[in-house]
Amino acid sequence: MTCTPLNPPPTAQEATVRFATETDVPTILALIHELAAYENASSSVLATETSLLNTLSFPSSPTDKPGYARTLLIFPPSPEEQTCAGLALYFYNYSTWRAAPGIYLEDLFVRPQFRGRGYGKRLLGELALETKRIGAERLEWSVLKWNEPSLKFYHSLGARRMEGWVGMRVDDLRGTGEGEHGGDAGGELERLGKWGKGVEWTGD
What is the 8-class DSSP label of residue 75? Predict the structure, then answer.
């Protein structure tokens, strides 16, 4: 395996990386749409500014707010380019075999005009530091099989393919009728939920 040098380029180190705040939600949504367009999946985006506000965590969020993911934004150092260059949106997961938390990178995206500056590596570097900070043991993500440029990029950083695993998903299709069994009664998630009764988290 050939890995890139550990020393990041100056342009990446000079960039500003910070956690997104509530005022950044329009930017986050725009980046989500740009990523979806790159992946030929624009019609699959159902996110809105309201739904992002209700489900993302921000530095100012109260501790009892059910935020499910955090977002890092990167900005170029040049005053003439003070627009967001990209994002890394992630959440925490858990490994039972290791009895340790981990981080799952849901989306990594750098706008085309900012590529080649090391910004993707810088965002991954910040996530690696966060992984170590919380005592986690792995950082993971998924890549579309056809996305050879991204696969080569991640491989160059030392990431390895999980060849023995197949991703599985049960969707709530929100009445689109696109599930394997058809219909518009809430999708496969609702069908599966009929096997449950509901369990209450009571706390201490």
Answer: E
Strand, helix or coil at 40?
coil
Mean pLDDT value of segment 180-200? 74
Could you give the maximum distance between any two Cα atoms of the chain, in Å?
56
4: phi > 0 → left, psi -120 to 50 → alpha, else beta; which? beta
Q: Is 140 helix (H, G, I), strand (E, B) or coil?
A: strand
pTM score: 0.83
Is residue 94 part of the annotated active site? The answer reads no
Neighbours of 169 (CB within 10 A): 6
3-state DSSP call for residue 70? strand
Active-site residue, from 38, 92, 94, 154: 154
Nearest C-alpha neighbor of 106 from the set 137, 57, 70: 70
